[in-house]
Amino acid sequence: MRKIAANAIFFALFAILLSSCAIQRPVIEYRDSVRVEYRDRIVRDTVPYAVPVEVEKVVTRDTSSRLENSLAVSEAVVSGGYLRHELRTKSQTIQVPVAVEVRDTVYVEKEGQILTQTVEVEKSLTFWQRFKIGAFFWLLVLALIGWRREILALIRKLI
C-alpha cells in the first residue's frame, strides 16, 4: 500500500511539474509582401515620318515661276511657247506629334519584417504567487531526496 501511495504522489508531482510555470513570450510575426501596381499614363512624343518623294509635271502656255517651301520645290519654265511646271518634294523625315497610352507594371517588394508585440501586464505578481513559484522547485527537490529509494527501485524495475 505504501508503494502505491508513493507512486501516486510521485505521478501527481510529475503532473504538477509539467503543467506549472509557463513562460510568456512575445508574439513574433513575419511579414513578406509583394505588391503589383499597374499605372496607366499617356506619353506625348514625336515620331519620325518619312515624306515620300513625289514628282508632278504640268505643261501650259504661261510665264515662268518658282515656288519653294520646307517640304517641296516648284519650278515653272517657258520653253517653245509652253510652260513646263515641275513640283518636287524634298526627301526628308518630319517629326509628327503623337499621344501613346503606356501601362507600367511596378513590382513593390518589401523584405521580411519582424513585428514584435509587447503585452504589458496590468499588475505584478503578489508575494504569495512568487513564493509558490519559488517554493515549488524546492519542494520537488526535497520530495525527490525523500523518495529516492522508491524512485531508484522503480527505475531498476523499468530497466
Question: Could you characterize what this model shows?
Answer:
The chain is 31% helix and 47% strand. The chain has 159 residues and is α+β, with helices and mostly antiparallel strands. It has a domain at 1-24 and 119-159. A 4-stranded antiparallel β-sheet has the order 2-5-4-3, with no helix packed on it. A two-stranded antiparallel sheet has the order 1-6. 0% of the residues are buried.
- Mind describing the biggest β-sheet? 4 strands, antiparallel
Strand order of the largest sheet: 2-5-4-3
Number of helices: 3
Query: Stretches where pLDDT falls below 50 for ≥5 residues?
Result: none
What is the overall pLDDT average? 78
Helix content: 25-40%
Shape: rod-shaped
Radius of gyration over C-alpha positions, nearest whole angstrom: 50 Å
Which key phrases capture this entry?
rod-shaped, alpha+beta, 159 residues, 6 strands, two-stranded antiparallel ribbon, four-stranded antiparallel sheet
SSE inventory with pairings:
Elements: H1 2-19, E1 27-50, E2 55-60, E3 65-68, E4 72-79, E5 82-89, E6 93-117, H2 127-146, H3 148-158
Antiparallel strand pairs: 1-6, 2-5, 3-4, 4-5
In a nutshell, what does this entry contain?
This protein has 159 residues and is of the alpha+beta class. It is 31% helix and 47% strand.
